[in-house]
Structure prediction request, 362 residues.
Amino acid sequence: MVPTESKIEHLVELAEVRSTESTAELVTIIKDLFENQGEVLSDREKNLMFKIVKTLFHEVEVSVRRELSQHLADRDDVPHDLITYLANDDIQVAEPVLSRCELLQDTDLIKIIHQRTEEYHMAITLRREINEDVSGALVETGHTDVIISLLNNENSRISESTMNYLVEQSKRVDTFQEPLVHHRDLNSGMAEKLFEWVSDALRRDIFKKFDLPPEIINKYLSQTDEKIAKKKRRQGEEIPDATMDLIRQLKTQGMATIEVLIAALNQGEIPLFIGLFAEITKLSTGYSTDIILDGNGEEVAVACKAIGVTEFQFVTIIKKLRKLDAPNKEKTSPAQINEMAAFYRTLNLKNAVEVTESWRNL
Prediction:
């Protein structure tokens, strides 16, 4: 093995020659010095080597420069001017430094964001830590893919003003919505705004993350124009008299219970199930029919939580209901059932009771 000191001396000699062959040998020796962790360079040797690297960097092909950049990106002893030089090189060379090097300062990153293209911005979004100033500069670029990548970085810090801006923008750019819901800097006030326009699945995620007030839940689950129209169409669809008589008998005998409710559903007695559901929850039969047959499950979940249905019982109910051959029902996957169970688990009992009580005049 050639001693480190001899390698450094040879580097100087090769740098003075400046031929194609000497440049190739220079690169080989520098890579060997970087890779050989057993050899410790003195400060003088490192400074000399870094000076040679910077001087000759533009003379070697991009693939070689990228390989050297990969070695330098994780070091903590590279001169600042060399690191910033690499960060502004061709994106293939700059990417390892932009995404990993901790020697780059926030001012360096912001300058690069202002002066370089989207590819450089994307590399910066992959850093282990991104502070609010850098995040703000990235958002100001307006590049959708850059912003999504920033939001998906769990270690990015985003200021309240920038988060509020992105929440508002998510009305128009729906691809912002999921990463926003899951970002560490989303607060309950922002979540309440998002709640109005995100998908049902993301609303469930918001329920898991925040304890929203009852009025927000009620606003989400309140009747839409479509539901009101369906209710009017169902006004003539009443539960058979015989079924209502049975429900009254069960009530008199103290048997209008959750267990009997589930038994009716298991036996396919849908009118009996709806009637018992209405009796136990104190909701109207019309509204009960709507949320059972035409709802997406959230309203049933809230009402079930309010009357003390266990999570296991709720899952049993929702599985059976999703198998009904009814309008707007799609086959439900195990993953969707798990999402509904998670949604149910995170519902606040007090809020569920208050929301269910507000439905009793519908």
Remarks:
- Confidence is low (pLDDT under 50) at residues 232-236.
- The chain has two domains: 4-157, 215-358.
- The chain has 24 helices and no strands.
